[in-house]
Each structure stands twice: as C-alpha cells, then as structure tokens.
Amino acid sequence: AQTVTQSQPEMSVQEAETVTLSCTYDTSESDYYLFWYKQPPSRQMILVIRQEAYKQQNATENRFSVNFQKAAKSFSLKISDSQLGDAAMYFCAYRSAVGGGSQGNLIFGKGTKLSVKP
Amino acid sequence: DVKVTQSSRYLVKRTGEKVFLECVQDMDHENMFWYRQDPGLGLRLIYFSYDVKMKEKGDIPEGYSVSREKKERFSLILESASTNQTSMYLCATRATGANTEAFFGQGTRLTVV
Predict the structure, then answer these.
(1) Which residues does chain B have within 8 Å of residue A102's beta carbon, measured at their own beta carbons?
(2) Chain B nearest-CA residue for A41
C-alpha cells in the first residue's frame, strides 16, 4: 500500500522569505500523481500544485514550485516570497494513475501547519 | 467553477442519534468521496462512490454508511453517533480520468455529545 509522510508538523517563515515543506512517499508503482493541497482557516481545501510522475520537469505555479525526486520518492514544496495569506495547513497527497476503484483515491500525509510572521 | 456544497458547516448531535451529512456537486463528476480529518492524522478515506448506487469502503468505514441515489448527491450516514466520531468531515468530487483533480467541500465540523 502507498503511504505519504510529512515529517514537519509545523513550520514558520518570515514574510517575503522562502520556505520548503517536505514530503516523502512510498509506492511500487511507476505511474502516479502527486499533489500539494492548502487548507486555510476557512477549511476549503485548495489545490496548490500537482506533478505527474512521468514528467521529469518540476511543476511551477507562480510562487509555488516543487522539487520532485522520483528515485528518492521525495516531493517537496517551495514557497517563494511568502505572504501572510500563505498561512495554512499544507497536505501532500498521492494518487495512482492506473486502474479505478480504490486506486483512484487520494492518499494524504498528516499535514504541515505553516505560519507566516509579518 | 466546480462547486461542492456540504449541507452544514457545524453540527452538534447527541450520542446514539442517526446523523446525515449531505454533499452536493454541480459538475457531473462520477466520483465522490467522504474523508474524515483529525489533528495529527491527516485525511482518512471513509467511503467513496464511482457511480450512482455504487459504493466502496475506504480505510475507516466502521460506524458509517453512505447513499448515492443521484449522481450529484453523496450522503454520509452515522447510524448511531458516538463521541469518537466527533471530527471534521470533508466531501470531495472528481471526474473520471487519469489527469483530473479533486475538488473539496468546505467541511462539516461534527460534535457528538
């Protein structure tokens, strides 16, 4: 079974600085998707960025980028120029790219709470 | 934009009550999911449905059941609520296909007293 591990329960960053959130996963599959979701205090889970495992190029969305190391099974999120609105819980998630049924579900890590200091 | 609406943001129920949590989506997605979120545990899958009247157990189905009579609506049922079911419940939806993303409702914080 696949697992997702986020080893940092809490992180803190100064406004305008850069922070990196860690995520590792375990799988025997070669084709899958990886995601970072943000959950602000409003509780609405929002997709931040996703990465297809077959793509070697790291995904980027404005100030958010990932460092995807497939061999190491690592998928870290870098937030540049941190803003107060970035304060939230961040969840790393895995989804298989093959099959249906339960294989189509998201498997989540336990989350990292990010605080942004003004 | 995809809209996933959960019927309540906050709910307080008594032990032993039958509880219904409703989720409605407006994008004709085939797949719908119910997750439970607890501090330090992340999100855990309770049940999911990939079509009308179809359902499959997730990782923690004990004490829960689901109903999907119409494509847009997926209900989570607590047959006899217990205090250990006090939690945040999140509904999600996703279209069928490899490269599709999940969309979430705003969550229901259920307290069982």
Answers:
(1) 48, 56, 58
(2) B106
pLDDT digits (tens, 9 = 90+) for B6-52: 999 999 999 999 999 999 999 999 999 999 999 989 999 999 999 89
**Closest Cβ opposite residue A45 in set B40, B41, B90:** B90
d(C-alpha A92, C-alpha A47), whole Å: 10
Contact B43 A106 (CB under 8 A): yes
DSSP state of A101: G
How confident is the model over A54-104, as pLDDT tens digits? 988 999 999 999 999 999 999 999 999 999 999 999 999 999 887 555 557
List, in sequence order, every beta strand (DSSP E) within A53-87: 60-61, 64-69, 74-79
CA B13 from centroid of its chain's CA atoms? 17
How far apart, in Å, are the Cα atoms of A53 and each of A86, A96, B86, B94?
A: 26, 10, 36, 19
